[in-house]
Amino acid sequence: MTLTDLIKKHPALTCLTAGIIYSVQFWSDYTFIFAFPGLALYFFALFSCERKAFFRYSYLFCFGFYIPLYYWFMALYPFDGFGFSAAEGITIVIVACIGIALYHSLLTAGVMWLIKFVPENKHLRAFAFASLWTAAEWVLSIGELSFSWGKAAIGQASFLPMVETASLFGSYFICFIVALISAYMGLWLMTGNHKFLCVWAGVLALNLVCGTAILLIQPKTENKTDIAIIQGCITGEDKWRPDYYNHIVETYVYMCGQAADEGAKILFLPESPFPRYSSEDCEMLRPLAELAKEKNVTILTGVLVADDEDRYYNSIAAIYPDGSISNRYDKRHPVPFGETIPYGELITGIIPALGNMNLSESLTAGNDTSLIKAEGYTFAPLVCFDSIFASFSREAVNDGADIIFVATNDSWYKSTRGVYQHRSFSVLRAIETGRPVVRAGNTGISCIIDPRGRIISQTQPMVEDILYGEAFSCNTTTLYSLIGDIWLYICLAFSAGVCGFGIYKQKRKVKTDDNKS
Fold this sequence. Notes:
The protein is of the alpha/beta class. It is 48% helix and 15% strand. β9 (403-408), α17 and β10 (437-441) form a beta-alpha-beta unit. The longest helix has 31 residues, at 486-516. The chain is globular. The two termini are 41 Å apart. The relative contact order is 0.11.
């Protein structure tokens, strides 16, 4: 039995298996190659079945992909410190692992279903497949429910020559390239025609050559300063215990003092190191302000803020050597069902229990880049989830930022792959903008990333550590910083055009057949 016969006999199993294979790229820093056979098998199976089955088989592929991708949500259980019962904790984990996978499968399969309208031309199908897969990634990133985690570029981020072209056209271009290569692999498997082998090998080689060339061009850096990233390693179980608060403050103050004594001039702390809401003057940062004055250092840190109108913010601010505090950056995209209830009244009206699932006070989102100036640098602050959205860092760089600072708290996910995947978003932000990234994680991963996406140094997750290094500014302007996601818009326009043309042809054929009758 040939591969074609096997796929035609078991298309559902093939698509489910292909989705699992595609997810393997996210399991390790060394499994990025699995993206290609996974999508190639999906393409093969899709065009070996009837058009009416496209949605069903696309859904199976996506479910096979998203379930392994989101397995790390299980690390959330049992939500110690939040007062959830065992049943509530299990419910949240099931909703996170399976519910999100079902929802994302629905959205992605809905987009990929449109390929049924593409005319029967092999090259057109390949480009439409790549464009629609890119469009599907974008769909997951829009709206209050946006959670575009399983991006193709993240799966490739550990292989820098493959993703360096994101500095030209952004991470959606990487998605398109991965899907296009895979589509031509699928055509090669389907037909045995070496012409398709040459196409996918040529596209891969061209992207790698361009990526390697970009990687070898050393960015000009200047204004170097000794820094330290403070990784206090306060676990999710301990962080929100009222009786643990003083210990947390003492831990960070002691570690900051130790770093200052070692010569660091700028200290970076993670997202909300002190787990209490402060008034707008950030009085909770007073222990750090006193240390900044004593040691003559600058401290950039996360801080939770509540204003006089009972609005809550997850923010970043700088504490200067004179003890004063900078302007505040407020997190721009709160985590759905973690920091805000998306479409609150609508969602809780349908499922009232979800109103109790928020893991913190509902946050008010910030609305601008709010750059922070300190020690001769202009920092682009990003809080945790903000770092998965390329537009935030691009806007900040266009506003004049020369270093990106990501403050995060991934303690909920311990040392699972979710922590490493989240770090990879910072790698992409560095490549896209041509700016170094300083990333401070409560339990890790803390790291310093150069403008080409190379991780200069990093900590291990779930350990208390101080990461020493140098901050430096870089004013290189990438093409992506100038043009943004124009490649995405090209993919959307191409998808709409080719699908619309296909629908027109099908209707015209039906009309012609009717006339003949």
